[in-house]
Design goal:
The complex is a heterodimer of chains A (662) and B (307). Chain A has one domain: Maltoporin, Chain A (Beta Barrel). Helices cover 5% and strands 56% of the residues of chain A. The termini of chain A are far apart. Chain B contains two helices and 23 strands. In chain B, strands 13, 14, 15, 16, 17, 18, 19, 20, 21, 22 and 23 form an eleven-stranded antiparallel β-sheet that branches. The longest helix of chain B has 15 residues. The radius of gyration of chain B is 24 Å and the shape is globular. Chain B starts with a helix and ends with a strand. Classes of the chains: A mainly beta (662), B mainly beta (307).
Chain lengths: 662, 307
């Protein structure tokens, strides 16, 4: 690994020499608001429709994100219609890796909406700041109260009940802001039973219980520097996954970090931000709730990550740049143990992740140059070294005899974009190039059962880097009343990693119909389009609409799986004094471009109508909001293209919530 | 302050420690199987001025394949023999007085670097009240031939990875297949080693007991042992593995192949024994059909293992 170091240094030295300087690029933080270097993000995590949303529901409100759903809990976010191994999902830049081989625990399931302030989504190579990516990055930004607020104590308490699945939730958060000392804390508890579909039938195994707590302590070490210790503890018990043959007995995550920040008033360097972090996840699946299973199987998984993140902001005149060093080490281990019908007999054991270490070190730089009042050029790059080690490499040798135990990859990335604003119009055009390394499952997975296409999946340590070439463009118009914005992007991905049927071997899981190995397609292409519009019909009546379309094809022009069909959303918002009403309609058209090869079938179109109303008032000094609403008002029975195993989605759901702010 | 640091550390340990322990892989694959590396003395006895000692793995003769090392020392001179012709014949006698043997090396080889005589014996059954094993040895020194017999104990083989089978082939010959390695398989590619032997029926009437020509076995040459490993456990649907290699004979006379075990548990090594002309002497092909819920079908010729 050391031999790459001079190369990396050289590359960045080169960038520095060319660098001139600027203003930070405006990120597409979907919840708004980010301020200078120590950010004060005020907007809550909530959608237009619903103020008490889960992290998943909130993410779903972004047009770049779609979801694979295996139940009511822990949805897997797809960015630009690409599965989660193609995007970097981080919490404040920290890498956390799920411990479940079946993707029951995307990182988004280990946070709660009341400990987040915003979610920063970047598309494609622009998202390379936190590490190598193809699809982009999703950074979950934690709440961070600034020092010395005039109001020292702040907090909120939110409770609510959702009738469909009898979900009862309590979310509380509080902060203290002193001149020298800041404390942020949150507690959340959710408990839900099985939900009912549009035919009022129970969807068995869709219950969940989640507890989440977070604590942050910050201390101002000098006028311009501070240290901060943060921790999130998350625990989920008895979570059902109706689309899978097993549920979750327990998952626990501990996510900790220590950060040192230094701000400079003068000079080239404006801020330095260094964080060391540690997180540990344990995930225990449970199939004892599924008596129909022929074989009882334990599938525990563990993932431990240590990391370092160091960020510097540079600004000179119209040039600004952000440099980030990322380093982490992750150990992922997952086991399976099958029990014979005669339990006194020998159990059958194997690793589904045979102790796989991933060590990554990378340096990223993003520059922004305001060429004029109207135009801006953003460009950047990153270079990472990715090292994998498989502890029990003999597992990998079964399918790939003689494959090396270690593998080092170099992951470069480059991107550039140009933005132009002319009066009320804006345009942008950009491109990117980047590599990503295969994920632990893609590289080292061993008989991982995929209940969607019913194949056992085998990783291949010798897979080539996936190489993405992307182009993107946008055009928009905005005035006081009306706005419209169109975005397109196109990815040409070389060595696209996907599972292909192996003629070798036979399945290990009794439900499975065969074995698939992760292989590289020569290439595949992905096209994403979105159109957003908004119109203020009256001062207090607003309309919003979103249309998205995507198309993914492999080298043989066959369809890729999990590509969202044409989808639409239209919403009206009406404000009458302290009362506001929202209604929205959303849906997908029929899925024409489905992929039978990957277990997909044609999903019919659906349309969902949602409705909500809220009222804001004061109890003493406390701002209080009460909300009542209904999702899927017409109780439509439907499932979407990305519902694992076509499990039906929730039928009519009346929700209520009450929130106090102090 | 110190107390609080200690408290914080204790809490940290408590929350970071796993709820369930990870499996220790080494002990997992050792739960059923013990691997023996060491040659220990099985038996030692004297004949005139000679001390005869036999070493085998774990100091025990087991049913199945046994590799052994034999040393003969002249007690007077304290020198070990190295130019002797040594013959080795194990014979089992049952309660009816019928005698039988098993595949073995009759003329032992001298290993000059380690200074011992090497041989092997495939014991076809363990010693019981009604079935006794006896060794008949002969050796020469100073142009004099000595013969000696000695009772031995053959114990049951608890390691199923060293199982054996015997059968009559379609050619009317009697065959023996004994597993030699691996003693302790891994979830990996394992080199599978087996001895394949045939009984040579005597062409003449028995001479004075023990007549070696009545108990003659030879190593089968240039056959191929076709391999198809499966997991017979009903829930495994007769799961098979891949990249296995059929067993072929190597210079040491044993047959070598590759077996891949994809997980621990019960496996069946389904065999088909093929002669040098490509004819199947014994064994049937097993369907590749995945059959969850029923006990896996086996070849006519198989050995069950467990690890």
């Amino acid at each position: 690994m050391m031999k790459f170091l001079p190369l990396i240094l050289l590359l960045f030295a080169g960038l520095f020499v060319q660098a001139q300087n600027t203003e930070k690029k405006k990120d597409s933080i979907i919840a708004l608001s980010e301020v200078k270097l120590i950010s004060v993000v005020k907007k809550k995590i909530e959608t237009e429709m619903k103020m008490a949303v889960s992290v998943d529901e909130f993410l779903a409100s972004s047009e770049n994100i779609s979801f694979i759903k295996r139940g009511a809990y822990a949805w897997e976010p797809l960015l630009n219609n690409m599965s989660s191994e193609r995007s970097t999902i981080t919490i404040d830049g920290m890498h956390v890796f799920g411990a479940c081989t079946d993707k029951m625990d995307p990182i988004t399931s280990y946070v709660e909406s009341n400990n987040l302030s915003a979610i920063d989504i970047k598309s494609g190579q622009e998202g390379n700041m936190h590490g190598a990516t193809v699809a982009g990055s999703i950074d979950l930004k934690r709440k961070s109260t600034p020092f010395g607020l005039s109001k020292q104590w702040n907090g909120a308490y939110q409770t609510g009940f959702e009738f469909n699945n009898k979900q009862f939730f309590n979310l509380a958060n509080a902060s203290y802001s002193g001149d020298k000392f800041v404390v942020d804390g949150s507690l959340a508890f959710r408990n839900a039973e099985n939900y009912r579909d549009g035919n009022n039938d129970d969807v068995n195994h869709s219950q969940f219980t989640k507890f989440n707590a977070s604590l942050g302590l910050a201390y101002k070490t000098s006028e311009l520097s501070s240290v901060k210790l943060e921790a999130i503890y998350d625990q989920a018990n008895d979570v059902g996954y109706p689309a899978l043959p097993m549920d979750l007995w327990l998952s626990r995550a501990l996510i900790t970090s220590a950060t040192y920040k230094q701000v400079f008033e003068k000079g080239l360097f404006r801020a330095l931000d260094t964080k060391i972090y540690f997180n540990a996840i344990e995930h225990y699946m449970d199939d004892t709730t599924r008596p129909e299973n022929l074989v009882h199987m334990d599938m525990p998984g563990w993932s431990t990550t240590y990391g370092l993140l160091s960020k510097a902001n540079i600004k000179k005149n119209r040039f600004s740049s952000e440099i980030q060093l990322n380093a982490y080490n992750n150990l992922s281990t997952a086991e399976m143990r099958m029990y014979p019908q005669d339990r006194s007999e020998r159990s059958m054991f194997a690793y589904s992740w045979p102790g796989v270490t991933t060590t990554f070190a990378g340096l990223s730089i993003n520059n922004s140059w305001e060429m004029s009042e109207k135009s801006q050029l953003n460009f950047g790059g990153s270079l990472g070294v990715n090292y994998n080690h498989s502890k029990y490499v003999e597992f990998n040798w079964i399918f790939h005899p003689g494959t090396p135990q270690e593998k080092t990859r170099l992951l470069p990335s480059l991107h550039a974009g140009y933005q132009l604003n002319i009066n009320k119009f804006n345009f942008s055009v950009g491109g990117g190039y980047g590599h990503r390394a295969p994920s632990v499952s893609e590289g080292y997975g061993y008989y991982i059962y995929n209940s969607f296409d019913r194949y056992d999946y085998i990783g291949n340590p010798d897979l080539d880097n996936e190489i993405s070439y992307e182009g993107n463009a946008s055009a928009g118009y905005k005035d006081d009343k009306f706005s419209i914005q169109a975005n397109v992007n196109y990815f040409y991905i070389e060595n696209y990693i996907i599972g292909r049927i192996l003629s070798l071997g036979s399945p290990m899981n009794y439900q499975s119909i065969g074995v698939k190995g992760y292989t590289s397609l020569d290439y595949s292409t992905l096209f994403n389009f979105s159109l957003n519009g908004s119109y203020s019909i009256l001062d207090n009546l607003h309309w919003k609409g979103v249309l998205t379309y995507a198309r993914g094809k492999d080298e043989n022009e066959s369809n890729l799986p999990f590509i969202r069909p044409l989808s639409y959303q239209t919403a009206l918002h009406y404000q009458y004094h302290k009362l506001s009403f929202q209604t929205s309609i959303n849906g997908d058209l029929e899925q024409i471009h489905y992929s039978p090869e990957y277990g997909e079938d044609q999903t019919p179109s659906y349309t969902i109508w949602n409705l909500s109303a809220d009222y804001t008032f004061r109890i003493k000094d406390y701002k209080t909001v009460v909300q009542v609403g209904a999702e899927n008002v017409l109780n439509e029975y439907y499932s979407t293209y990305a519902d694992w195993g076509n499990i039906p989605r929730m039928g009519r759901n009346i929700f209520t919530s009450l929130k106090f702010n102090f | 302050m110190k107390k609080s640091i200690f408290l914080v550390a204790a809490i940290l340990v408590a929350v970071t420690s796993c709820t369930l322990d990870k499996t220790d892989y080494e002990s997992e694959i050792s739960t059923i199987v013990t691997e023996h590396f060491e040659y220990l003395e099985v038996i030692s006895f004297t004949k005139n001025d000679y001390q005869i000692s036999i070493e085998a793995l774990n100091g025990t003769f087991y049913k199945g394949y046994n590799d052994f090392r034999l040393k003969i020392t002249n007690i007077q001179t304290n020198e070990s023999l190295n130019t002797s012709e040594i013959t080795f014949l194990p014979i089992s006698t049952n309660y009816n007085g019928n005698n039988s043997s098993g595949p073995h090396r009759y003329n032992l080889n001298y290993n000059s670097t380690e200074d011992y005589y090497s041989g092997y014996a495939v014991f076809t059954n363990e010693s019981t009240d009604s079935e006794n094993w006896k060794l008949y040895l002969s050796f020469t020194d100073n142009d004099q031939t000595y013969t000696v017999d000695q009772d031995i104990i053959v114990e049951a083989q608890t390691n199923m990875n060293l199982n054996m089978t015997s059968f009559t082939g379609s050619d009317g010959e009697q065959y023996f297949i004994a597993l030699v390695a691996p003693q302790k398989p891994k979830i990996a590619q394992n080199e599978l080693v087996a001895g394949i032997y045939t009984y040579n029926p005597p062409s003449n009437e028995a001479d004075t007991f023990p007549d070696a020509s009545q108990f003659s076995y030879s190593e089968v040459a240039d056959y191929t042992l076709l391999l198809d490993p499966r997991m017979p456990e009903p829930s495994m649907g007769n799961h098979s593995s891949l990249n296995n290699e059929d067993l072929t004979q190597q210079e040491d006379g044993l047959y070598y192949g590759i077996v891949n075990y994809t997980m621990t548990g019960n496996w069946t090594l389904n065999f088909r024994l093929q002669n040098q002309f490509g004819e199947i002497i014994k064994g049937t092909e097993v369907s590749t059909e995945f059959t969850p819920g029923i006990e896996g079908a086996r070849s006519e010729l198989y050995i069950d293992i467990l690890f």
